[in-house]
Structures are given as C-alpha cells and as structure tokens.
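Hi Prof. W.,

I finally got the Ketohydroxyglutarate aldolase prediction working! I wasn't sure whether to trim anything, so I left the full sequence exactly as given:
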Amino acid sequence: MDPVDKVVVSVADESLADLPAVVAALREAGLVVDDVLEALGMVTGSVAREAIRSLRAVPGVSDVEKQRAVRFPPAAPTP
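And this is what came out:
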C-alpha cells in the first residue's frame, strides 16, 4: 500500500465562491476529504504521497501542507 499523508489544502480567496467545485476537483485528484472548513477556505483529508503534486495543480488551490502531529509527554506527577 502506498504511503498516505494527512493534508490541509488552502483555497485561494478568489476561488472561495467556487469551493464546491474545488472540493470536487480535489477528490478527482485523489483527496479523501475529511472536512471542508468553508469559513477558513480550507479542506482537510488524506492523499497518497505521490498525489500531492496533483492536488497543488487543482485550479483554485493556493497551498497544500502536510498536517503535523504534535504530541506532548505526559505531565509529571505533582508532589
């Protein structure tokens, strides 16, 4: 199985009115959509690593970033 990355796709301001069409094109390019954050102009989801370039080529996309996981160590017990 190909490696899969979680990504955040930013939609260009001038394409926000066409957000449903941009989301449809992202799906066609291989994105499995988790959430559409309409107010922020962002789409989150999963994509095969080799398809990230295809997402960047979708008209209306301004950026594609890999999601970063932040983990904190457990808190030390207080005396």
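The longest strand covers residues 4-11. Does that look reasonable to you?

Thanks,
D.
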